[in-house]
């Protein structure tokens, strides 16, 4: 065997072994990559799950917390909301002196927060529903001043004071956005049926309570119901009897008018042509003008004809005298000793001569 043949065989074996080794390394690397994507290389330790206490049913003001009204559910987040509970045990107790009550309505599935329940042994009273530092004060209203009974616990109202002095009556907005705690003796903020009430209780500061107490003795207070999501305050001024002579447009109509004027100005600035409604209006006006012109022409023709007819001399028509009934005379004729009467026309001598 020649030397060149041996060298070629050895070189081929070496290259084949190198290719097989390289292929094996590539397959091993790809397998490791695939496995690392499907199965993590290191198992991540499972975080311990937290629980949170929620209401099983709707809880209203004054209800006592019992185990059948609450439930614990898994809370996936690492941190719990402030004031929430992780267990039912601190919320319920068989002892009366450790019982807890609801002071603000809680929906089904809503977490139980410490701000919505009483302390252990504390009763659900209006004082427990007050924000720390705030006071509760009541004013007397009627069906008109109390917005026809549509003011309910949880609403916010503006309180207006009407006074009458020597120079006339005037109205001031005393307080804005005051929270209603109760109507009559009902403090349930889930009440949604309007009813005519006699008193309304508000949550106010000490200074605001002083103003309300004084206002009840110097004038008449009225309530103005605010939107539930309204939180802005207005810069207001006193309204007197002199302001009643200035008519005002409703806010909604004023905004619509401003919007229409803005759109008209925008179209004018852009050089836009008349709209379809304008073209239709012009076409209708043209048709009406032509119709009215035709009617005017016909009326003129009729008046002219009437004028011409009035200028013709019309001979009066004399009615013929009714025919005269002929006068008759009774003539008696005696025949064979019997008298027979005949009616014969009576002829006047003048008429006979005329004939």
Q: Number of helical runs?
A: 6
* Class inferred from helices and paired strands: alpha+beta
Rg of Cα set:
54 Å
Order of helices and strands: HEEHEEEEHEEHHEEH
Give the oligomeric state.
Answer: single chain
Number of extended strands: 10
Helix content: 25-40%
| Chain-averaged pLDDT | 76
The proportion of strand residues reads 15-25%
Describe this protein's structure.
It comes from Aliiroseovarius salicola. Pfam families: RcpC. This protein is an alpha+beta fold and 355 residues long. It has helices spanning 3-38, 126-129, 206-218, 251-270, 276-311, 349-354, and strands at 50-55, 70-75, 135-140, 156-165, 168-183, 199-204, 220-225, 239-240, 328-335, 338-345. The model has no long low-confidence stretch (mean pLDDT 76).
Key descriptive features of the protein:
21% strand; two-stranded antiparallel sheet; 355 residues; extended; alpha+beta
Give a concise summary.
The protein is of the alpha+beta class and 355 residues long. It has helices at 3-38, 126-129, 206-218, 251-270, 276-311, 349-354, and strands at 50-55, 70-75, 135-140, 156-165, 168-183, 199-204, 220-225, 239-240, 328-335, 338-345.
Reconstruct the topology from this structure.
Blueprint: H1 3-38, E1 50-55, E2 70-75, H2 126-129, E3 135-140, E4 156-165, E5 168-183, E6 199-204, H3 206-218, E7 220-225, E8 239-240, H4 251-270, H5 276-311, E9 328-335, E10 338-345, H6 349-354
């Amino acid at each position: 065997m020649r030397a060149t043949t041996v060298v070629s065989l050895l070189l081929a074996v070496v290259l084949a072994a190198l290719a097989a080794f390289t292929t094996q390394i590539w397959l091993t690397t790809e397998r490791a990559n695939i496995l690392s994507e499907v199965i993590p290389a290191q198992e991540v330790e499972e975080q311990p799950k937290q629980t949170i206490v929620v209401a099983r049913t709707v809880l209203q003001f004054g209800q006592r917390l019992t185990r059948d009204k609450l439930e614990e559910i898994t809370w996936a987040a690492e941190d719990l909301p402030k004031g929430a509970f992780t267990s039912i045990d601190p919320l319920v107790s068989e002892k009366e002196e450790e019982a807890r009550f609801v002071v603000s309505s809680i929906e089904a599935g809503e977490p139980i927060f410490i701000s919505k329940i009483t302390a252990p042994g504390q009763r659900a009273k209006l004082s427990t529903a007050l924000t720390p530092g705030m006071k509760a004060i009541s004013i007397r209203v009627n069906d008109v001043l109390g917005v026809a009974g549509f003011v309910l616990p949880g609403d916010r109202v503006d309180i207006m004071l009407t006074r009458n002095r020597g120079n006339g009556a005037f109205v001031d907005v005393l307080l804005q956005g005051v929270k209603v705690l109760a109507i009559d003796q009902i403090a349930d903020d889930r009440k949604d049926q309007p009813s005519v009430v006699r008193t309304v209780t508000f949550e106010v500061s000490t200074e605001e309570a002083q103003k309300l107490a004084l206002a009840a003795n110097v004038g008449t207070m009225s309530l103005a119901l605010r939107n539930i999501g309204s939180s802005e305050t207005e810069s207001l001024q006193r309204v007197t009897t002199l302001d009643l002579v200035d008519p005002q447009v409703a806010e909604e109509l004023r905004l619509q008018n401003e919007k229409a004027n803005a759109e008209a100005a925008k179209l004018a600035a852009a050089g836009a042509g008349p709209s379809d409604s304008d073209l239709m209006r012009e076409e209708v006006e043209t048709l009406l003008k032509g119709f009215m012109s035709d009617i005017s022409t016909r009326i003129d023709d009729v008046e002219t004809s009437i004028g011409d007819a009035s200028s013709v001399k019309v001979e009066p028509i004399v009615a013929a005298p009714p025919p005269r009934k002929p006068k008759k005379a009774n003539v008696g004729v005696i025949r064979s000793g019997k008298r027979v009467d005949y009616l014969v026309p009576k002829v006047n001598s003048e008429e006979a001569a005329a004939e």
